[in-house]
Amino acid sequence: MKLATVMHAGAKRVGAVAGEAIRLVPAGEGDMVELIGRGQAEIARLVAASTDTVPLAAVALLAPIQRFNRDVLCTGWNYWEHFEESRGKREGQDVEKPKAPTFFTKGPKTVIGPNDDVCVDPHISAKWDYEAEVGIVIGKACRSVSSAAALDHVFGYFLANDVSARDLQRRHGGQWLKGKSIDRTMPIGPFIVTPDELDVPSIRLELTLNGQTMQNAVLEQMAFPIAELVAELSFGMTLDVGDVIITGTPPGIGNAREPAVFIKPGDEMVVSATGLGELRNRVVLHDLHGSTDIASMTS
Fold first, then answer.
1. Segments of the chain with pLDDT less than 70
2. pLDDT per residue over 82-117, tens digit each?
3. Where on the phi/psi map is residue 211: left (φ > 0), alpha (ψ -120 to 50), or beta?
4. In sequence order, what E strands does 132-185 have?
5. Whether residue 254 sits in one domain with residue 185
6. Would 292 be classed as within a structural domain?
7. pLDDT by residue (tens digit) across 195-244?
8. FRET pair for 64, CA 20 to 30 Å: which of 44, 228, 242, 278?
9. Among residues 21, 36, 61, which one ends one of the domains?
10. HSE-CB for 17 with a 13 A CA cutoff
């Protein structure tokens, strides 16, 4: 199944996408997280019983997950070429090649829809960067799950663009939370696609900036495959239904280029991947700093 959350007739609705139409689950059945908890078979039953089908063109696609139990869970350095491309460019914060996955979190208020504008503010950061990623959503709670069983707990896959403020990452001791958590900067979606529709290792992930290809990789190039990510992250730590994990970006980020390429108002980023659709987002100038007394990052 290919599931989406949409705005239709003034209300948020969940539905299954087929071609250019979406069949809506009855509104009283709950949001995406509640439905995921009920399982794919129950969602399929609700979809099959529905007669409420509308054209995709008649609805607005929203971020598929609208309710977060916790921060977005994230993976860093999960393509070795990406790890190596930034060597010497981390402004004194280089580390040895990790032997296990690197995890961090980012605030859920970063999340926007697949076609929403990405907001940037030069007072907040002078180095806004793109990061195409594939994300997963947990369908069954788990703790200390084995790698062999880990994928049984993955409900589906989606796209993300982990827009990052590189100078804030450096400012705060190299810890990524702050530089990754600026409001309204991470589009996700457009769909959550169940594993039965995908050959995950062969998914090709791409990002274009103003029509130019900047990132292009297949998921089998990951340093740590998704099953290992789930096993490692759940080690002693409960993952709940609806938890979202983004799985790392491939090489080609702007900060590692010579000269560096940072996004700016007026740019358009398109993230796409085999079977997962696309995110298409315009970069816009927006006041994110308000009445702060923190000095501008461009001063």
1. 89-93
2. 888 878 766 666 778 899 999 999 999 999 999 999
3. left
4. 132-138, 154-161, 164-165
5. yes
6. no
7. 999 999 999 999 999 999 999 999 999 999 999 999 999 999 999 999 99
8. 228
9. 61
10. 24
